[in-house]
Amino acid sequence: MSGPTPATPADPADPSDPSDLAHPPRVPHVPHVPHVPGLPEIGQRASIRLFEPEGGYRDLLGILESPTTIRKKDGSLITFDPGRIFLWKVVPPK
Asked: What does the alpha-carbon distance between residue 33 and residue 24 come to, in Å, rounded to a whole number?
């Protein structure tokens, strides 16, 4: 008797077959950030977590001066790429 061999649990799924719902494609988990800091958040204290190109994350905490800059408590002004934001939130003043 010939015909297709049934798949076994040890067989990998065909990643090109979208109908294989038992084996969805693996993608990294990225939370949905509804928007990036904008005009309503300027002047508020914010915490921003950025993706680093080399891997990992970098955190910024300070007063949002513009949608792309934050002033740290030491007075330094940091410019960041909003496209690299992983998470952000407005935090209460200290």
From this structure: 23
